[in-house]
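Minutes, project check-in

Agenda point 3 was the complex the collaborators sent over. CS summarized: two entities, 647 residues total, and the question is how they sit relative to each other. Sequences were read into the notes so everyone works from the same version.
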Amino acid sequence: MNTFIYPEYEVVRNQDNCIACRVCERQCANRVHRYDEENKKMIADSTLCVNCHRCVCLCPTHALKIVRSGDTYRENANWDMQTVNEVFRQANSGGVLLSAMGNPKNFPVYWDKILLNASQVTNPSIDPLREPMETTVYLGKRKCEVVRDQNGKLVDTMSPSLKLNLPVMFSAMSYGSISYNAHESLARAAKALGTYYNTGEGGLHKDFYQYGENTIVQVASGRFGVFKDYLEAGAAIEIKMGQGAKPGIGGHLPGAKITEDVSATRMIPQGVDAISPAPHHDIYSIEDLRQLIYSLKEATGYQKPVIVKVAAVHNCAAIASGIARSGADIIAIDGFRGGTGAAPTRIRDNVGIPIELALASVDQRLREEGIRDNVSIVVGGSIRSAADVVKAVALGADACYIATAAVLAMGCHLCRTCNTGKCNWGIATQDPELVKRLNPNIASQRLVNLLTAWNHEIQEIMGGMGINSIEALRGNRLMLRGVGLNETELKILGIRYAGESL
Amino acid sequence: MKRIYVEEKWCLGCHLCEYECAFANSGMTDMVKALKGKTIHPKIRVEDGKNVHFAVNCRHCKDAICVNSCIAGALSRSESGVVEIDRNKCVGCFTCVLVCPYGAVMPDGDGHVAQKCELCTKNLCGEPNCVAHCPNRAIVYEERD
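CS then shared the predicted structure for the full assembly.
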């Protein structure tokens, strides 16, 4: 017999306010709400609720809220409730626990222990509303040597690069893990903003080739949907070696999500599970990686920058050093808080390292080895706000990747059940009835709003520091001070403690 | 003129528009007071089929058959193009209900007179309330002529 696990959250309905319009019932894919004809009132079964807040948001009289149920076992600092329930769930099912979105555990968030500088008296701050403030970023190799041809003219051919109007891009989410409408929203927003979205490893739907100039196409271990037109469609090609949410393991898109369209885009049979292997079976070394990078460059006429994306793991500085020498133009590092459509819970919650530490160590290592200009660095894995972006740039990043923040803007409430495929917000689902809940006309505008707001904030913060160009902020760790950090953490981050002067 | 159009592609069949319509025309400012425990008689109706949902309300036809067929002169087309109904003139013959090709005219809650969407021009909203509250922008109010 399965052990009953009392729901962690419960639906609370203010019956005085409920007008029994049944919107909650119609909008819940988990069938939590139903109308009791006999008593003429709505009732809810909290055991089915995933706490996605769709009903709460749509209730016209605000009669609903979702609260912690409060049911508790005897308190135990070692065996907390979730740990005990996970044992019950595994004893019930015999299965590996699956989770979605990023690591929710209480690990330190270093962004929140880093504070930014501002100008006072001796150096003027800048008002971004009145003076120019540059947030445009170019990603790719930078040439440091001055080379002249035989006539003494400067050789000014630049390596292929990406131009971003602001230092933020949408990171990889595949068509399959997220819906057609979600992809359309990201593509349209990227185009409107002058930045890029990323196909993830699911191929590029034929309808979205029109957004190619703002698309980064991904080549991952499953090679789904990869062919010449696909590679040529994007502005850059990303080789995905790893993902922050699940370093060291591959992916698994259940057959139920391989609908006709997804199957055509991924070039795999309909209804069959899509398995991305853990490693690329042709890459066992930096030399192998170099071969793939140059294969892709050859296939696209050396016109597109190649990004190599790795998860932030213990040895990432050395790995990044290898990548910087492998011919890649951009390194993307994904921290352990990065999201996912599905990952084994133990991997998500226990593998990888914080992006702040990974970024600082990678940037430092590449500088020490004199190869920092070989590559641009893009970081992701829980960039939550404009302040995180500014701190990341000051730690050495060229730009940031956001995905969790982007799906939040589209409606996600972080219920972390993407793996069920019953996303009530129409994002992480392929059910046509649910997908249509995400209207790209609304969602793309919300994404544009979010990043427009962030860009204003970035400019405001930079102005406060007396910096008028994001280029002048990059790697400028003197603009950062730590609080609540120990010596080792400060050393790795390469920053001083708050109160220490120059 | 600006009319209400429904994009079937985005209609979720949540039926919120029906409740927002009933509230808008209740004359009250509190939705709970207006609708709690009551059967609503909205002027917009969501038609549900299998996987198809579509909100239907008055199209404000240029040559409105309901206006032409009204035996009491209760239905008329205003200068701005809104097809209006005068409750005081309506005799409840429901010819308009029968002739409307969209099923957008219906008896009101009491069943004595006909009612139809008047684009919230006669209530406190000013702009159509169903449009303002559609969660997926499936109902839009725009000029398309």
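Noted in discussion: The CA atoms of residues 143 and 158 of chain A lie 7 Å apart.
Follow-up: revisit at the next meeting once the mutant set is ready.
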